[in-house]
Amino acid sequence: MPTPNQQIDQWASAPNAVLHIKTISNTSQMFAIYEFVNVEKKYQQILLPTGEYFALGDMRKRYYTFQSKTMDRVALNIAVKNTQDYDALLEFIFVYDGGDVKNCKMIGRLSSFLKKKKASTSSNITLVNFYDVKSPSYLIGNDYSKVSVFSKYKAILTSRNQQTTGELFDASDQGAAYTWICSDCQNFYWTVLKFHKSTTTASN
Description:
Elements: H1 39-42, E1 44-49, E2 53-55, E3 62-67, E4 74-80, E5 93-96, E6 106-109, H2 110-116, E7 124-129, E8 138-143, H3 144-147, E9 152-158, E10 176-182
Parallel strand pairs: 1-3, 4-9, 9-10
Antiparallel strand pairs: 2-8, 3-7, 4-8, 5-6, 5-7
């Protein structure tokens, strides 16, 4: 039986792109149609200072730019709920190293950026989602010099009346820093904070 026709949308950044096609038979056929999209006209730019965050699910017809007022590099960190190990939808979000999508270079997908670089080369960084997928995660931008002094920095996503569990631990001299983000409230506070018992065993 023939394979059903499939339409696959692939986005690429100007000025050029490469499309690789691999088949397992010599009877396959394909064709490609391309369309130029003016992002500045079709999408609304949202400017955010470092220290702010936004929901990655709220990117329809919008693209976000983090700006450092101190002209520092911008570090990006993802915040997911404690029940999520990995957000596969980060693959569909593009990262531009600068303050817009017209004059700045697209440097990769958000998934790979967070694994490798995590910080811009300038005082701005821009993100756009062409695929309209709604990621459940949040993204926070910070001044790189503020978070790089810690051995570990992590953003934790929570919601109203949710019990959040996890470890806040770091034994290094630099210490660790955490940011708590509530997805459905403007202000929240802890009612209970439980500490595990810690014992030290003396050694000769």
